[in-house]
Amino acid sequence: MGTFNIVVLPGDGIGPEVAAAGVSALKVIGEVYGHTFNFEEKRIGGIAIDTDNNPYPEDTDKACLAADAVLLGAVGGPKWDLGKMRPEQGLLAVRKSMGLFANLRPMEVKASQIHRSPLKREVVEGADMLIVRELTGGLYFGKQTRTEDTAIDECVYTVAEIERVARVAFEAARKRRNKVTSVDKANVIETSRLWRETVMKLHKAEYSDVELEHNLVDSMAMHLVTRPTAFDVIVTENMFGDILSDLASVLPGSIGLLGSASLGTSGKGLYEPIHGSAPDIAGKDLANPIGTLKSVAMLLRFSLNLLTEADALDAAIDAIVEKGVLTKDLGGTASGSQVSAAINDQIRAAATVAA
Ligand code: NAD
Ligand code: IPM
Ligand code: MN
Q1: Which residue, among 134, 116, 137, has the nearest Cα to 125 in the 3D structure?
Q2: DSSP string spanning 10-42?
């Protein structure tokens, strides 16, 4: 029986729809397992530009830093695309402020999902990987310079930044299938050469029991499609991880299925689906809430140490997917709120059976 303070950042587009599904699942878990979740909703992204002229207002930052965990929907949208201030800056700011350098993006193709994969059964069957994306360095946080005819994005990585995220990957691999694939562009880019060198040194010094391979990011994109079952833990820098995780996300059928946990040195984390604000379907109750609910399961597991509850939520999601209660992105006819309600009912039903 615990009491936990959760900050909710709904954001823009489908963000508020999927965040609401996350909150409702937590409420049900609170009822069923006797926990109290206190929710505090704060502004981030485009909506915060509109209200505060700042994509990451100070009171949002304060609340995030004080919370036990943060749940985020998504930010961005065409309304703010041409402005000088961008919603996405809010997301980068919360990641940096909370020191969340490791972004975990698990992707698994369950047996019941194979027929919805764009890949052939024999290629995709058994695919189960964890992408560990570096989240507070690289191009995203380098100095940006712009004159009328020239733009410069600086890409900086230090040994310490590479080491700490590689450590997360090696530790995760030890609890999985003991293999790490480090992805870089060491044939061209200097930060990638430092990346590879650092990962190799750390491996030799502390993790030689873990199988390690290195892949260049371009061929990695190809391998993810041609032999996705070859990978266990993938570790890579910020931008490569962003791109490769969208690619990997569709292997089970939709980007709407993938959640993520962003972690730092404190136990506190930020949990968000990997998809964006999907302006094309916003406000229509079409958004798949599963990516957010998978994120909530990680929130329970990693920040609140509620392992039974996390497993129960994961199991309820699987059961509802297997039953075929699906949103349109997965070929179904259910609305996002119907999927969310079905998962909540499943959590209650499973707990009644177990009692
Ligand atoms: P997107 O992920 O928002 O959408 C890509 C496609 O996937 C769209 O067709 C969309 O309808 C679909 N999709 C995404 N999530 C879905 C869900 N839950 N259920 C069903 N379908 C879903 O990517 P985009 O269109 O390139 O970006 C739109 C905006 O979102 C941009 O402003 C971008 O910067 C922002 N963005 C934000 C985040 C975030 O907040 N974490 C992540 C990615 C993109
Ligand atoms: C993500 C998004 C963000 C990123 C954008 C919106 C800043 O694409 O979370 O994957 O690139 O990190
Ligand atoms: Mn992305």
Answers
A1: 116
A2: EESTTHHHHHHHHHHHHHHHHHHHT-EEEEEE-
Neighbours of ion ligand 3 (CB under 5 A): 242
Helix (H, G, I), strand (E, B) or coil at 234: strand
Q: How far is the CA of 193 from the centre of ligand 2 (A)?
A: 24
pLDDT digits (tens, 9 = 90+) for 272-325: 999 999 999 999 999 999 999 999 999 999 999 999 999 999 999 999 999 999
**Cβ < 6 Å from ligand 2: which residues?**
76, 88, 91-92, 242, 274, 276
Per-residue DSSP letter, 78: G
From the list 191, 141, 130, 189, the residue with the least C-alpha distance to 162 is 191
Structural domains in the chain, sorted by start: 1-101+266-355 (3.40.718.10), 102-263 (3.40.718.10)
pLDDT at 320: 97
Distance CA 102, CA 75 (A): 20
Catalytic residue among 242, 268, 271, 329: 242
Length in residues, the chain: 355
**Residues facing 39 on adjacent strands:** 6
CA–CA separation, 355 and 353 (whole Å): 6
Distance, in Å, from the CA atom of 177 to the CA atom of 235, rounded to the nearest integer, reads: 14
